[in-house]
Amino acid sequence: MANFGINELRLVDPRDDWPNKKAFATSSGAHWILEGAAGARDDCARRSPDMHFVYATTARPREMIKEVVTPAQGIRIGSDSHL
Asked: For the chain, which has fewer Cβ within 10 Å, the N-terminal or C-terminal residue?
């Protein structure tokens, strides 16, 4: 995340307990992002009431009926919405 200038992580219903030692071990020194993610919630709406759009990422294949967009498409969608 830090490599791409993304510095705010919000966790919703994490699979493993939080804070998670494995996440810190694999964070490549970006502990400050993980430390700011404290307070994981079980509900997306309660975790992000100040946001108009919420995007999620995963490294695992999922069987979902959600629309999949690229990061570039997400930026276009957000900027075209005229919020």
From this structure: C
Q: Is the pTM of this model over 0.70?
A: no
Residues with Cβ within 8 Å of 35's Cβ and at least 6 positions away in sequence, in order, are 19
Helix (H, G, I), strand (E, B) or coil at 83: coil
**What tokens does 67 get?**
């629309």
| Amino acid found at 21 | K
Please, which residues bridge with residue 41 across strands? 12
Q: What is the pLDDT of residues 5-59, one digit of tens each?
A: 888 888 888 888 888 899 899 989 899 999 888 566 778 888 888 888 887 777 7
H helix or E strand, kind and range, residue 31: helix 31-35
Amino acid at 5: G
